[in-house]
């Protein structure tokens, strides 16, 4: 019987987050010959989500449907995932390093009495072992960690391990596991989202972020237009959030979200170290600032010195020309 690896899927607004598919690819790196078992929990019909996991590489999927799993709680989801673990006896677990992953993974690791390596950005395969690379000191350094046991449990940072190609020809068994969820101390009665509509900031391939240099909430409008033209999301520095230019749900940095998009456009951002901690691992960084001495230029791949209110409309115009062409 082949080794089993468990991938915990995560949903948002009824759809699987991209990091769930990236977790499947990470599990394949751990052991390409293992049977990859996806897990998805919720209160609604989960078959379409289970199929998506199979299309992206899972061999089969276990669904857990219960009224207590309508909204995430650590007690409810913890019981559900532990029930699947006990039923399947996997040799390792992979999930996303998201707000849910950060909350749920230590709880599961403690219950399983096993180690946990969180926020993995790369998996290094050698003849003797697997090494898991993760950032430390706010992204200023990286460390390699290995498991001394034979049970790897990792969370992966979104946008770092590419997902496999979606293949709708793939098939696999989907099985519902009936469980009892008891002793729920937290009840979610309502969820009010302050985040903007559209692309999820933490998973966006393109991020357009504004700082104090944007000057006002009105000044963020061109950034939204640029992000829409590029199919990306809008973020912000803490300074912009503190100045009430935008909501704190957009904050990127040491005390906000950590993003690793393919393209990060920093607009009117000076480059304080707290902000760099949340975006310095972006694949390509473009800085737009009227101050040529701004620290952001020290880490930028490309820099534009000038008035953002003149540059952004020109960028939008040129991008739209290319898209039309």
UniProtKB/TrEMBL annotation:
This is Electron transfer flavoprotein subunit alpha. SMART domains: ETF. Gene3D superfamilies: HUPs, TPP-binding domain. Residues 5-196 form the Electron transfer flavoprotein alpha/beta-subunit N-terminal domain. One of its GO terms (biological process) is fatty acid beta-oxidation using acyl-CoA dehydrogenase. Transmembrane segments: none annotated. It comes from the Bacteria. Its cofactor is FAD. One of its GO terms (molecular function) is flavin adenine dinucleotide binding. Binds 1 FAD per dimer. Belongs to the ETF alpha-subunit/FixB family. Keywords: Electron transport, FAD, Flavoprotein, Transport. FAD binds at residues 212, 237-238, 251-255, 268-275, 289.
């Amino acid at each position: 019987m082949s080794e089993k690896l468990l991938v915990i899927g995560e949903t948002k607004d009824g759809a699987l987050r991209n990091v769930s598919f990236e977790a499947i690819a990470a599990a394949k790196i751990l052991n390409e010959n293992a049977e990859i078992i996806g897990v998805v929990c919720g209160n609604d019909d989960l078959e379409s989500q289970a199929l998506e996991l199979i299309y992206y590489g899972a061999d089969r999927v276990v669904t857990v449907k219960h009224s207590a799993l309508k909204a995430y709680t650590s007690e409810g989801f913890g019981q559900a995932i532990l029930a699947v673990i006990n039923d399947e006896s996997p040799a390792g677990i992979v999930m996303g390093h998201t707000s849910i992953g950060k909350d749920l993974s230590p709880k599961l690791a403690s219950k399983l009495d096993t180690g946990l390596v969180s926020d993995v950005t790369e998996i290094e395969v050698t003849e003797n072992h697997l090494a898991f690379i993760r950032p430390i000191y706010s992204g200023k350094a990286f460390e390699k960690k290995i498991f001394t046991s034979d049970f790897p449990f990792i969370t992966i940072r979104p946008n770092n391990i590419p997902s496999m190609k979606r293949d709708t020809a793939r098939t696999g068994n989907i099985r519902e596991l009936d469980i009892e969820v008891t002793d729920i101390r937290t009840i979610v009665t309502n969820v009010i989202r302050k985040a903007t509509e559209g692309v999820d900031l933490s998973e966006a391939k393109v991020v357009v972020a504004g700082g104090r240099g944007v000057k006002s909430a009105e000044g963020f409008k061109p950034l939204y237009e640029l992000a829409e033209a590029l199919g990306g999301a809008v973020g912000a520095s803490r300074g912009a959030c503190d100045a009430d230019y935008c909501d704190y749900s957009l904050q990127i940095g040491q005390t906000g979200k950590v993003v690793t998009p393919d393209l990060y456009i920093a607009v009117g951002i000076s480059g304080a170290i707290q902000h760099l901690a949340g975006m310095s691992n972006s694949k390509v960084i473009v800085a737009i600032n009227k101050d040529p001495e701004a620290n952001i230029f020290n880490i930028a791949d490309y820099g534009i010195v000038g008035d953002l209110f003149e540059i952004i409309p020109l960028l939008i115009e040129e991008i739209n020309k290319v898209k039309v062409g």
